[in-house]
Design a protein that fits this description.
- The protein is an all-alpha fold.
- It has two domains: 25-214, no CATH class; 221-327, no CATH class.
- Helix content is 59%, strand content 2%.
- It has 16 helices and four strands.
- The protein has helices spanning 3-8, 11-21, 30-50, 56-82, 90-102, 108-120, 135-139, 149-156, 161-164, 167-174, 176-196, 200-220, 244-249, 256-261, 277-287, 299-309; strands at residues 87-88, 271-272, 291-292, 321-322.
- The strands form two sheets. Strands 1-3 form a two-stranded antiparallel ribbon. A two-stranded antiparallel ribbon has the order 2-4.
- The radius of gyration is 21 Å and the shape is globular.
- Residues 1-9 and 317-327 have low confidence and may be disordered.
C-alpha cells in the first residue's frame, strides 16, 4: 500500500484493512492490544531497573503468591467452579476467591464461561482460544481480539445457572474489579513495604510484574503449549496433549490429554507427580473437612478409553507413582 493511498483512508478504515491483511478472523480489540503490550514493555523495563537489589523476604513472598494465585486458578476457577470436580465449604470458597482475585484474571464467571466453551467446542472456530490458529493466538492473541460470532453463539449455549445462583459468586462478580485491584496489586506490594521495609520500586517489580506475569503466562501455556506439544495416551483424536513443562509451571494442569478425556476428575491427571500441587492442596482441604465429594475416573474407565483411543504411548513417570494409590 502506497503512502498516498494510505493517507486517503480514514484511520478506522486503515485499521480494518490492516487487520484483514494479517488474516485475522476476529477484529482486534485495540485497547486490550495496547494495554497488554504496554504492560509487558513496562514490566521488562521496570524489572530491569528496580528488581535488584532485593531482600530475600520479597523473593520468597513472590513465590508464595505465585503458588497461591496458581491454586486460585487451578483449584478454584478450573477444577471447582468450571468442572465441579469436587465440592467446597464456605471457608475454602472464600480462600479460593481471594487467591483467584490475586491472580489478576478476568472474573470467575467470565473464566468459567470461556473454559466451558473451550471444552464443548475444543479447537474449533467456536473455541475462544482455538489452537488451530497458532501458538500466539491460543496463548495470548485471543485476549487481544474480539470474540467471533461462533464463540458468541457458543457462549449462549453454556449453562451458567450454577454460577449465577451462587450468592457469594454474585457478590464477588459485582465488586470484582475492586477486589482484584486490592488483592493482586495493592496488598501484596504494600505488605512487602510494611513488613520488611522493601524499597517500593522493588516491591512493585516483584509483585506487579515478575510474580503476576509469570503466573499469567504459566496459565496461558495450558491453552497454547499443551495444545501443541506432547503425547496422547488417552485420546489421539484430540489436540490437547500431555506436557510435563506445562504441568510443572502450573502445578498439575499440563496433563491435558487426560484432562480433556476426563474433565470431571479433580486430579486433572491419572498419575501422581511431585508438581501436581493443585491435587495435593485439594486433598489437604479434604482432610480438614473443607473439601468433599472428590470425583475421579476409575481405572476401568481410564484403561477402556486409553485402549480404544490412545496413541499407544506408555504412561511412565519415573519421579512419581499412580495417584490412586495415594488416596
Amino acid at each position: 500500500m502506497g503512502w498516498g493511498k494510505m493517507k486517503s483512508k480514514s484511520f478506522p478504515e486503515f485499521l480494518s484493512s490492516f487487520e484483514k491483511s494479517l488474516g485475522y478472523k476476529n477484529d482486534i480489540k485495540w485497547i486490550s492490544f495496547i494495554a497488554i503490550t504496554l504492560y509487558h514493555v513496562l514490566g521488562v523495563y521496570w524489572s530491569y531497573r528496580y528488581a535488584f537489589p532485593v531482600k530475600w523476604q520479597t523473593v520468597v513472598f513472590a513465590l508464595i503468591m505465585y503458588i497461591a494465585t496458581g491454586f486460585g486458578i487451578t483449584g478454584g476457577a478450573h477444577r471447582l467452579w468450571t468442572h465441579r470436580a469436587y465440592k467446597a465449604k464456605l471457608p475454602l470458597k472464600l480462600f479460593l476467591m481471594m487467591c483467584f482475585a490475586s491472580a489478576g484474571q478476568n472474573s470467575i464467571k467470565q473464566w468459567v464461561r470461556d473454559h466451558r466453551i473451550h471444552h464443548k467446542f475444543s479447537d474449533t472456530d467456536a473455541d475462544p482460544h482455538n489452537a488451530n490458529r497458532g501458538l500466539f493466538f491460543s496463548h495470548i492473541g485471543w485476549l487481544m481480539m474480539k470474540k467471533n460470532d461462533k464463540v458468541l453463539q457458543a457462549g449462549k449455549q453454556i449453562d451458567m445457572s450454577d454460577i449465577d445462583s451462587d450468592l457469594y459468586l454474585q457478590i464477588f462478580e459485582k465488586y470484582f474489579n475492586y477486589i482484584k485491584l486490592l488483592f493482586c496489586y495493592i496488598l501484596p506490594t504494600s505488605l512487602s513495604i510494611w513488613l520488611w521495609v522493601e524499597n517500593w520500586r522493588c516491591a512493585v517489580a516483584w509483585q506487579c510484574f515478575i510474580r503476576f506475569l509469570s503466573m499469567f503466562h504459566s496459565e496461558l501455556t495450558v491453552n497454547s503449549l499443551a495444545h501443541a506439544y506432547g503425547y496422547k495416551p488417552y485420546n489421539k483424536n484430540i489436540i490437547p496433549a500431555e506436557n510435563r513443562f506445562v504441568a510443572t509451571c502450573t502445578f498439575g494442569e499440563g496433563w491435558h490429554n487426560y484432562h480433556h478425556a476426563f474433565p470431571f476428575d479433580y486430579k486433572a491427571a491419572e498419575h501422581f507427580d511431585f508438581f501436581n500441587w493443585g491435587t495435593r492442596f485439594i486433598q489437604f482441604f479434604e482432610k480438614i473437612g473443607w473439601a468433599y465429594d472428590l470425583k475421579q475416573a476409575t481405572p476401568e474407565m481410564i484403561n477402556s478409553i486409553a485402549n480404544r483411543l490412545g496413541d499407544g504411548t506408555p504412561v511412565h513417570f519415573p519421579i512419581g507413582e499412580n495417584l490412586k494409590q495415594k488416596i
